[in-house]
Write a structure and sequence with these properties.
By secondary structure, this protein is an alpha/beta fold. The chain is built from 14 helices and 17 strands. A seven-stranded mixed sheet has the order 6-5-4-7-8-11-10. Strands 14-13-12-15-16-17 form a six-stranded mixed sheet. It has a four-stranded antiparallel sheet with strand order 1-2-3-9, with helices on one face. The chain binds ligand DWN and S-adenosyl-L-homocysteine.
């Protein structure tokens, strides 16, 4: 049985998705025969409540100089991170000459706002290509995986930080105890860690199982996060739900007793208990919902194929790798996947090897149906795809339920 990465309790995985490739491992035909696979299994620790992957590939297989995800591909996310930066500045940066550190700073989508304002900052980003994109925007960045040792090295060179930030990164790091120890070393006495990640409550509510893939080692709730940080005399002092990436939670963490704990923390804690997020039955129900979603999606795609309809995928997201491989969506069911990221175009999707084509192809010849893999960006995408709809095109969505949008 796997051991919990947080409290070391043994637990039985509640769900298996079978053999999975690297979610962002877009590849060329000469790489097909050497493609790497692992067993994607997820489980719930009965002691600390952490939902986690039973097995995660080596980090260098996922984060490297050809990392395929560039944060700045979504305009909605660009404005979200501008607001995130503004809120952090207004609430936490009242010291003279403050210092801000961001983990997983990617192409500088957030830190660029601190750089432009002349605020001392540092990004910690292990994927060299996206780190380079940030450096070119004037964002100071080091190419490292954050852990306790890296925290110590930063303090020696730059001193402690007023604020440590992270978006969609803490849940990627399996050695979280080292991260929490690093947070304590790096933060000033009254410093704050502000981070956000997809929220487990939303995954349960929407059956958004495509959040489960290699990079996401953890699926956080307030209670599992509180357990982790309390092991290091740190505590969650505030929480703010976010409507990005299909439902996220922003957590603010500080040294125990230094900041007031907000009423929002107490009410979210009570809500999680009322929803039974500490009970294994909830994860059994999730498994049943996921299995139903798979049957419905595959039945719909097979039906459309029989009718001779053209169906393409929209946005080659990391999440799509789970859906495609778990539902066994083959290239005969999906003609290609349209994507705006140059590094993905001309390659093939991980596992199923569906072609990834430039967005211009979608625009040049609309299919009859588009399967929305970027459902978390639905507002942004629907707003710019009015002419697809006017041409008679229809969207297929699978979160929260499989359906063709009218
Ligand atoms: O946690 C993570 C989140 C923050 O980003 C990472 N592990 C990896 C990544 O996940 P994702 O790939 O599921 O992210 P997105 O933002 O849902 O999808 C990005 C992809 O969608 C890019 O390849 C670009 C594409 N896209 C598109 O083709 N047209 C996106 C938009 C908004 C569009 O209009
Ligand atoms: N913050 C960005 C990027 C999220 S993708 C956003 O929200 O859009 C996850 C990022 O975390 C990747 O750029 C990846 O290279 C980085 N990452 C993975 N492990 C890390 C670690 N141990 N320390 C810092 N960053 C890490």
């Amino acid at each position: 049985m796997p051991q919990c990465l947080i409290c070391e309790t043994e637990y039985a995985p509640s769900m298996s998705f079978g053999r999975m490739p690297i979610a962002n491992g877009f590849l060329t035909p000469d790489e097909f025969s050497d493609e790497y696979f692992f067993e994607l299994r997820v489980g719930f620790c009965p002691k600390c409540g952490m939902v986690q992957l039973a097995e995660q590939p080596d980090r260098k297989k996922m984060f490297h100089e050809n990392y395929a995800f560039f944060s700045s591909t979504s305009t909605r996310m660009a404005s979200h991170f501008k607001e995130f930066a503004d809120q952090v500045r207004a609430r936490f940066l009242d010291a003279r000459d403050p210092f801000v550190v961001e983990l997983g700073s990617n192409d500088g989508i957030m830190l660029q706002h601190f750089a432009k304002a002349g605020i001392r900052h540092l990004g910690i980003e292990p994927s060299a290509n996206v780190a380079q994109a940030a450096i070119e925007k004037g964002v100071r960045t080091i190419c490292e995986f954050f852990d306790e040792q890296v925290a110590q090295a930063i303090v020696s060179e730059h001193g402690q930080a007023d604020v440590l930030m992270g978006a969609n990164v803490i849940c990627h790091i399996p050695y979280l105890r080292s991260v929490a120890a690093g947070v304590k070393i790096l933060l000033k006495h009254d410093g704050v860690l502000v981070f956000e990640d997809p929220y487990l409550g939303d995954i349960l509510e929407k059956t958004s199982y495509d959040q489960i893939y290699d990079e996401h080692a953890f699926y956080f709730s307030l209670s599992s996060i509180s357990y982790l940080f309390s092991m290091f005399d740190l505590e969650v002092v505030d929480v703010i739900p976010q409507d990005v990436h299909g439902g996220s939670m922003r957590y603010m963490v500080a040294r125990k007793g230094v900041h007031n704990v907000s009423a929002a923390v107490r009410s979210l804690c009570a809500r999680e208990r009322a929803l039974g997020m500490h009970k294994p039955e909830v994860y059994d129900q999730l498994r049943r919902n996921i299995e139903r979603s798979r049957s419905n999606l595959i039945a719909l795609l097979k039906d459309l194929k029989q009718q001779g309809k053209r169906v393409v995928g929209y946005a080659a997201t990391s999440k799509s790798t789970t859906v495609i491989n778990y539902c066994d969506i083959t290239p005969d069911l999906l003609e290609y996947i349209s994507d705006t990221t140059p590094i993905k175009q001309g390659k093939y999707s991980p596992g199923a090897h569906i072609p990834i084509r430039p967005y211009q192809e979608f625009n040049a010849s609309y299919p009859e149906f588009a399967l929305l893999f970027g459902w978390n960006h639905a507002d942004e995408i629907m707003a710019k795809e009015q002419s697809f709809k006017r041409a008679g095109g229809k969207w297929i969505v699978y979160v929260p339920e499989v359906k063709v949008l009218a």
